[in-house]
Amino acid sequence: MKRPAPIGLFRAAFVLLGKDLLIEWRTRARLNALVFFSLSTLLLFSFALGPDTKLLERNAGGYLWLAILFASTLSMGESFRIEYENACLDGLRLAPADARAIFLAKAMGNTLLLVALGGLLIPVMVALYGVKVVLGVGPLLATLALGCMALAAPGTVYAAIASNARARDVLLPLLLFPLIVPALLASAKAMMLVLQGDPMNQLNSWFGLLGGFNLIYWGLGFALFPRVIED
Amino acid sequence: MQAPAPASPPAIALHDVSKRYGRHWALARLTYSLPPGRSLLLTGHNGSGKTTLLRLVATALSPTAGHIEVLGRNTVSDRDTVRQNIALLSHASFLYEDLTAQQNLTVLARLLGLPSPTDVANELLTRVGLTRRTQSPVRQFSAGMRKRLAIARLLMKAPSLALLDEPFGELDPSGIQAMETIIGELKASGVTVILATHLIEQGLSLCEERLHLSEGRAVAA
Q1: Which of A5, A82, A94 sits opposite B58 (nearest CB)?
Q2: With the CA atoms of A159, A162, A167 and A170 taken in that order, what torsion angle do they form, in degrees rounded to the nearest 10?
Q3: The pTM is what?
Q4: Nearest to B99 by CA among B137, B69, B73, B62
Q5: B51: domain CATH number?
Q6: pLDDT grade, residue A110 (50/70/90)?
Q7: Percent of chain B at pLDDT above 70?
Q8: I need a surface site. Which of A2, A14, B41, B216 has the fewest CB within 10 A?
Q9: Count of the separate structural domains present in chain B
Q10: B112 and A7 in contact by Cβ < 8 A?
């Protein structure tokens, strides 16, 4: 057989993303678990706050992002479990696949999963909390995409670190939550404006802030990930 | 006067290599050189350092002290080049349980940039005797079938150096015979083979050199 030539970074990332999506499609266990977990979280918020519909309506964006955040810790940990089973991550490293391509593939895969989850949760939130999407679908999807990207990049790095630890289920939220507080705040604020209207034209500022967080998180993840997975 | 041709670098050169896990030294100041074109049998009891040595040469691990050269390239500073030239058959299969045999190989073929990944995968599955299970998920495979698929994965890389950790483990007699044939073919095509096994007679029939390890040190067999 002819000696293979190495492929580029982005092509490798898309090959690995395709592999992750194929595994997700074949099992669908992760998505099913995430949907039920996050639906339960949304329901629990409404039970905990009682019949005060005004309060639910006012804070709906925040509750949505908390449901996505809690689900993301399950999702991102699971995305690395498949790589540690049978030492598949070693197989990728020795292939050799660029560690940065592995990061990009995992972070993009986690983003897509969280966006899909958010897409399923939003109609439920609208029905359950009685909110309206005042600014329409475009800004709603943009907020969802930017917020999920901001969760996925640091979450992917920390999930890779935590996957090797004994207390991985506890470690991932402990590492992740303090880091993503600013991005979570910006996502929740942007979502509230999308749901309740934006008379002061603040939405673009929050989008800019989320874009900045994404640049930092994705840039750092891209640069640091090789150190995380190499011996 | 004509200048002499430059000598080929050793297949592997270990210079005072040590590896520590916590407080335990798995390898201690190991120095060894394998001439090009020769194959090496690694022997030793469980825990003697065979797997650690193979993983160090494969660049899956970095040495705690000392350095390793594979085909003249340093395994730390020139890791990617080394990885392009080696293939490791490990205790772990490197296989995704939820993908089929064919999908596992196709993903690797795409990563390696091979043309017609599916055709290459099917060809290798035929070579290792898994033609009838190409569409079965690995989760349904027996240990021996996983080993065969892992061998197909190794062959896909067309390595210059093949590192085989217990290649006969979990194989039935026909699988062992097929593995011996594959190792023979690899050697005939110029691939350097490093083989760690407890089946010493079989190993000696396949390798010209032998390195016996005990508690992470090279000792006389």
Answers
A1: A94
A2: -40
A3: 0.93
A4: B137
A5: 3.40.50.300
A6: very high
A7: 97
A8: A2
A9: 1
A10: yes
